[in-house]
Specification:
Layout lengths: L8 H13 L1 H12 L8 H9 L6 H28 L4 H30 L14 H13 L8 H25 L7 H22 L1 H13 L3 H12 L8 H24 L1
Helix pairs in contact: 1-4, 1-11, 2-3, 2-11, 4-5, 5-6, 5-7, 7-8, 7-9, 8-11, 9-10
Length: about 270
């Protein structure tokens, strides 16, 4: 019997809804990890201030996250099934597809990630706030100032933080798929099982990679390399920088991943 592949539409629909719904969380985490100035005094007030408009570069962030997340999850699921049919081990089948696809997505999206991060509060690019295409204005500025390589500054760090995040999430999703009891067929049972699988798959990677998120955002601001950035952060903040914005990052990274997994399962049932 010929193999019938999965339908990519639920993956893209779930990724689009998740990306739009969680954009304010992404913005709050980006502002918090970048250390941009905020006026509020309380932790809740700073979070609220960071998450509120203006949403500069919002379309670029949402569209980039939509295609990237959908490609990672769809490609990983289909790649894992193909590898298992070819006789690969469960560990390799769960690891290699998200490893390769998430690295590709990070490289492709990197210039837009950097420009969008700078737009959230860096005074160096305030000139772009009134442009019709602020991301393109920032990219032109970086190219003229530091050359084309500046567009991909921090790509290595981005791969180091993004790849483990998705590999861990997809491996945890596959493990939970095996460990959880099958749903009894009712809609509530299917959704509850999916919710447990989604939550377990999303939190660990976001927490472990927070220091790399902080370092990358600092590199965007200063143009420094990775190790000079780490040394400066360690000298000025001690080990506290490891946890800078971690609570926002858990929301900004874990919630979209969990929501994407949950919505994909939901849409697939329709």
């Amino acid at each position: 019997m010929a193999y019938v592949g999965a339908d990519p539409v639920p993956y893209f629909a779930a990724s689009a809804v998740s990306s739009m719904a969680t954009f304010p969380l992404w913005k709050a985490a980006t502002v918090g990890q970048s250390g941009y100035a905020l006026k509020a005094q309380s932790a809740l007030g700073r979070f609220w201030e960071a998450a509120m408009p203006p949403y500069r570069g919002g379309f670029v962030v949402v569209s980039g996250r939509t295609w990237g997340t959908a490609a990672i999850f769809f490609g990983s699921d289909e790649g894992s099934r193909w590898m298992r049919r070819c006789g690969w081990s469960a560990a390799a089948s769960s690891t290699l597809p998200p490893l390769l696809i998430s690295a590709y997505v990070q490289i492709a999206n990197q210039p837009f990630v950097r420009s969008s991060t700078l737009l959230q509060g860096d005074p160096q690019v305030s000139f772009a706030h009134k442009c019709n295409s602020p991301n393109l204005a920032v990219l032109r500025h970086l190219w003229r100032k530091d050359g084309v390589a500046a567009l991909w500054l921090g790509t290595g760090v981005g791969i180091l933080r993004t790849v483990p995040k998705y590999v861990t999430a997809i491996m945890a999703k596959d493990v939970m798929e095996e460990l959880l009891a099958p749903a009894d067929g009712s809609a509530s049972s299917v959704l509850f099982r999916s919710a447990k699988k989604s939550a377990a798959a999303s939190v660990v990677g976001a927490t472990l990679t927070n220091p790399l998120d902080v370092a990358q955002n600092e590199m965007y601001k200063t143009g420094e390399g990775f190790w000079p950035t780490v040394k400066r952060l360690q000298a000025s903040e001690g080990s506290r920088w490891f946890f800078r914005g971690v609570e926002k990052n858990v929301f900004a990274s874990a919630v979209p991943i969990a929501l994407t997994i949950f919505l994909t399962d939901t849409f697939t049932q329709w």
